[in-house]
From TrEMBL:
Species lineage: Eukaryota, Metazoa, Chordata, Craniata, Vertebrata
Presence of keyword Mitochondrion: no
Protein's recorded name: Solute carrier family 12 member 4
Pfam families listed in its UniProt record: AA_permease, SLC12
Membership in a protein family: Belongs to the SLC12A transporter family. K/Cl co-transporter subfamily.
Species name: Dromaius novaehollandiae (Emu)
InterPro entries: AA-permease/SLC12A_dom (IPR004841), KCL_cotranspt (IPR000076), SLC12_C (IPR018491), SLC12A_fam (IPR004842)
GO cellular component: plasma membrane; synapse
């Protein structure tokens, strides 16, 4: 397969070179014209944003209509060359294409184009080492390595520490593989993970994860600042502390307050540096990287030296308990001074006297001996076997050395401050959350892809090498710390047992200050890098305009520096500073980074499984299973480290996702979610095609036939309102309309009509599709819509048709003939039909009926449509408080009492709450009014026919007035109307069976008159005609 791909690539390349050479020879004249013409706008190949350009390939200026432009061999295509350019022109553009930042046309529309000389853009020149490998190394190595890795090894033990490092490094390695596939799939934009995810999974996921990544980067800045302050106040200048503990147990709160004050000062200073100019941050980047490298090398040097000459850092033990060494100098109960045994400082602290009396002494102090052990036994000491296993502690628990001789006794609580205590409760899950930030930073290479000479090669190679390097360093450091340092020292987070020295510094060579100074500068540098990168990420999100309320952060200084974004970043980072605890901030940013990595893996997996034609990464060593494994590890790590932080992070991402979805991000980036939707839709349609839906699954899938006026405005928008209330946002809704004319001539008009209908659908909140058909006759267009709308099993089963108002006054019979023709079409297609009469009086979506009735007049059985429709309407807030009443008609030979009981039982089994009433119609005598209405109807019909007939036809026309069939129909309409108006004149809505049209088309006018008489005097009527199948069932 690989050889075949290589051969295919060679063939494509050869063809490309050949075409370019031929185009240069044949297009000489064209080039001269091009050089004389004004410079056209750059072609954007960035696959995102709104596609508003007139030409998909070239500026129209290049396709001038001059006779010399067209090649004689292309005369057949000359009329389309303005939108379909010659291959030579397209390839010429591709050859001259430069690696611009994706979104440059979209984001920089306000760029100066005043004709001033532009600086010649410097071509990208950074390679894999300087552009990806070293920046990733600098971002991955950070404060956790120097301040918390030794403590993690002490608590978790070497074996569990290996597992923590392995889990975190596997997560980042699998994410890097997915990221490499995405980054090598086309021209790599400058924008890092946000651009990758948004262009792969769409604006909703992109915005949600982009903001999570932004928050993670911002909290990372806070974490680095807190780490720098911890190093400064604990190990460099403890005297600089502003708050001092008032008592023995106030040390922790005083330290937190110091962290808050100094952290805020440091944050302001760093924000000012970033505001003044990023160039200063970049200039010192190499210095900060050097500090990291030198610090790590000093650890290895110290570990090697400890084999034959371990450093002297004695630990004072009372029994098996570790003492805090900064409060006394001599590790003994008594000392000899001038040949006299006197109490030591330790005795004074535990016994509160200097006379060697034991009256007030701590019981544990009296029963146990004081001893000194080596804090750094060295790699040859065999301490590794003691440090293999975990030793988790609860908050406030004393650090004890296992198997060290001691007598168990209860000591005094007020002496606890003399021991080294655990400041937080530890567990495997807690340590995972604290350690994970030390493996983040893998996006550093992709973030600067615009500066890389060959981004598609450098990003995968550089990032994977950086992860391999850092993983080896972490694994080796875990092993070295476990093999060289005493367990109680490893568990001593702040180095109290070794005289307030940084624990990792005690192992380093030549001096602990190498690590202290190096880690301080590296954490300061990492904080500056975070405060530099986070505002730019927020600016990129704001400029994409997918989250409207962030638009202000898309602006900045004249040179593009994100001033407002920097201000917001500083404020959010201040929240992290106010937390003031490195161990509390680390899990927060772990959540946000894990969310980001999870969606990078998801993006790669989705694209791979969908096999979209555009998914052709140059990086071949990926697989959807690896991406899913990476995604699973990310999700597992989120809940392992902190389940409540994980839920909060997911809630934030979900809220942002729904907000962007609600706002309707009008972006088309060719994302994978759209492809996933297409695949899911295809699968669902194929499943629906397997057979007709069961009665239990039947629901009205609407085809709403709208009429447009001469200005292409919707004539009766309340039809859409009614459709939205009936569907309550569920199921299929297709809005159809017909424009009369020729398709070739009225295509633009059809497009405008479709846009008008879509706008009206948005206003009325109708979720569905729009289809406008151009036909020579409106009746034909409606027939086409009824036949062809929908796809496969997802077709309409119900037609909503407007009433032809003013049909009596109109001399043109086409309106009501179209209406009756549509009724016949729906009947022939076995579709249900809904005709809302007086639809202008129907309620809007903003109205509420707090009382009233929905009356159903069940004359003939239609499959249950009359029962189902009121139930669906009552799901909407407009009709929710209305009561449902069902009326049925009893004839002479019907038992009305039994009918009422049977109907009540039937409704009970249908689980529909409604009042039941049986109306008796015994009087079968035809009234004079009925004869009068029938006569008027037939005279009008006769007159209209006579107007349309020729003289010969008029002579042959034989009119039989007082046709008995018409009289009977009119009698039914009049009697039913009397009963309905009497019982339902104040109902909010009346639903009744719609009689079918006559089989003989000569009686169409009479049919319309029957419907008018039937609904006369009713404000809101819904005529319902079933589709010939049961739509409601009593079975579960």
């Amino acid at each position: 397969m690989l050889k075949r791909n290589i051969q295919l690539n060679k063939q494509v390349y050869s063809i490309w070179v050949f075409v370019v050479c031929v185009s240069r020879l044949l297009g000489f004249l064209e080039i001269l014209i091009f050089l004389r013409s004004p410079k056209p706008a750059s072609v954007s190949f960035a696959g995102h944003g709104n596609h508003k350009e007139n030409s998909p390939f070239l500026n129209n200026l290049e396709a001038g209509k001059g006779g010399d432009y067209y090649d004689k061999n292309l005369a057949l295509f000359e009329e389309e060359l303005d939108i379909r350019p010659k291959v030579s022109s397209l390839l010429g553009k591709l050859v001259n294409y430069t690696n611009l930042t994706q979104g440059v046309k979209e984001h920089e529309e306000a760029e100066n184009t005043d004709g001033s000389k532009k600086k010649v853009s410097k071509s990208p020149s950074m390679g894999t080492l300087m552009g990806v490998y070293l920046p990733c190394m600098q971002n991955i190595f950070g404060v956790i390595l120097f301040l918390r890795l030794t403590w993690m090894v002490g608590m978790a033990g070497v074996l569990q520490s290996f597992l923590i490092v392995l889990l975190c490094c596997c997560c980042t390695m699998l994410t890097t593989i997915s990221m490499s596939a995405i980054a090598t799939n086309g021209v790599v934009p400058a924008g890092g993970s946000y651009f990758m995810i948004s262009r792969s999974l769409g604006p909703e996921f992109g915005g949600a994860v982009g903001l999570c990544f932004y928050l993670g980067t911002t909290f990372a800045g806070a974490m680095y600042i807190l780490g720098a302050i911890e190093i400064l106040l604990t190990y460099i200048v403890p005297q600089a502390a502003i708050f001092h503990p008032s008592g023995a147990h106030d040390a922790s709160s005083a330290m937190l307050n110091n962290m808050r004050v100094y952290g805020t000062v440091f944050l302001l200073l760093m924000a000012v540096v970033v505001f003044v100019g990023v160039k200063y941050v970049n200039k010192f980047a190499s210095l900060f990287l050097a500090c990291v490298v030198i610090s790590i090398l000093s650890i290895y040097a110290g570990a090697i030296k400890s084999i034959f000459d371990p450093p002297e850092f004695p630990i004072c033990m009372l029994g098996n308990r570790t003492l805090s060494r900064d409060q006394f100098d001599v590790c003994a109960k008594t000392i000899v001074k001038d040949n006299i045994t006197v109490a030591s400082k330790l005795w004074e602290l535990f016994c509160h006297n200097t006379s060697l009396t034991t009256d007030n002494c701590d019981e544990y102090f009296l029963l146990n001996n004081v001893s000194e052990i080596a804090g750094i036994p060295g790699a040859a000491s065999g301490i590794l076997k003691d440090n293999l296993w975990s030793n988790y502690l609860e908050k406030g628990e004393i650090l004890e050395k296992a198997h060290h001789p001691s007598v168990d006794a209860a000591g005094q609580k007020n002496n606890l401050h003399l021991y080294v205590l655990s400041d937080i409760a530890t567990s495997f899950m807690v340590l995972v959350g604290i350690f994970f930030p030390s493996v983040t930073g893998i996006m550093a290479g992709s973030n600067r892809s615009g500066d890389l000479k060959d981004a598609q090669k450098s990003i995968p190679v550089g990032t994977i090498l950086a992860i391999v390097t850092t993983s080896l360093v972490y694994f080796s450091c875990v092993l070295l710390f476990g093999a060289c340092i005493e367990g109680v020292v490893l568990r001593d987070k702040y180095g109290d047992a070794v005289n307030k020295n940084l624990v990792v510094g005690t192992l380093s060579w030549p001096s602990p200050w190498v690590i202290v100074i190096g880690s301080f500068f590296s954490t300061c540098g990492a904080g500056l890098q975070s405060l530099t990168g986070a505002p730019r990420l927020l600016q990129a999100i704001a400029k994409d305009n997918i989250i409207p309320f962030l638009w202000v952060f898309g602006h900045g200084k004249a040179n593009g520096e994100p001033t407002w974004a920097l201000l917001l970043t500083a404020l959010i980072a201040e929240l992290g500073i106010l937390i003031a605890s490195l161990d509390m901030v680390a899990p927060i940013l772990s959540m946000f980074f894990l969310m980001c990595y999870l969606f990078v893996n998801l993006a790669c997996a989705v694209q791979t499984l969908l096999r979209t034609p555009n998914w052709r990464p140059r990086f071949k060593y990926y697989h959807w299973a690896l991406s899913f494994l990476g995604m699973s590890i990310c999700l597992a790590l989120m809940f392992i480290s902190s389940w409540y932080y994980a839920l909060v992070a997911m809630l934030i991402a979900g809220m942002i996702y729904k907000y962007i979805e609600y706002q309707g991000a009008e972006k088309e980036w060719g994302d994978g979610i759209r492809g996933l939707s297409l695949s899911a839709a295809r699968y669902a349609l194929l499943r629906l095609e397997e057979g007709p839906p069961h009665t239990k699954n039947w629901r009205p899938q609407l085809l709403v036939l709208l009429k447009l006026d001469e200005d292409l405005h919707v004539k009766y928008p309340r039809l859409l309102t009614f459709a939205s209330q009936l569907k309550a946002g569920k199921g299929l809704t297709i809005i159809g309309s017909v424009i009369q004319g020729n398709f070739l001539e009225t295509y633009g008009e059809a497009q405008a009509a479709e846009q008008t209908i879509k706008n009206m659908m948005d206003i009325e909140k109708v979720k569905g599709f729009c289809q406008v058909v151009v036909a020579n006759k409106v009746r034909e267009g409606i027939a086409h819509l009824i036949q062809s709308c929908g796809l496969g099993g997802m077709k309409h089963n119900t037609v909503v048709l407007g009433w032809p108002y003013g049909w009596r006054q109109s001399e043109d019979p086409r309106s009501w003939k179209t209406f009756i023709g549509t009724v016949r079409c729906t009947t022939a297609a076995h579709l249900a039909l809904l005709v809302p009469k007086n639809v202008s009086f129907y309620p809007s979506n903003h109205e509420r009926y707090n009382e009233g009735n929905i009356d159903v007049w069940w004359i003939v059985h239609d499959g249950g449509m009359l029962m189902l429709l009121p139930f669906l309407l009552k799901q909407h807030k407009v009709w929710r408080k209305c009561k449902m009443r069902i009326f049925t008609v009893a004839q002479m030979d019907d038992n009305s009492i039994q009918m009422k009981k049977d109907l009540a039982t039937f409704l009970y089994q249908l689980r529909i709450e409604a009042e039941v009433e049986v109306v008796e119609m015994h009087n079968s005598d035809i009234s004079a009014y009925t004869y009068e209405r029938t006569l008027m109807m037939e005279q009008r019909s006769q007159m209209l026919r006579q107007m349309r007939l020729t003289k010969t036809e008029r002579e042959r026309e034989v009119c039989h007035l007082q046709n008995q069939s018409n009289v009977r129909r009119m009698h039914t309409a009049v009697k039913l109307n009397e009963v309905i108006v009497n019982r339902s004149h104040d109902a909010r809505l009346v639903l009744l069976n719609m009689p079918g049209p006559p089989k003989n088309t000569d009686g169409d006018e009479n049919y319309m008159e029957f419907l008018e008489v039937l609904t006369e005097g009713l404000e809101r009527v819904l005529l319902v005609r079933g589709g010939g199948r049961e739509v409601i069932t009593i079975y579960s």
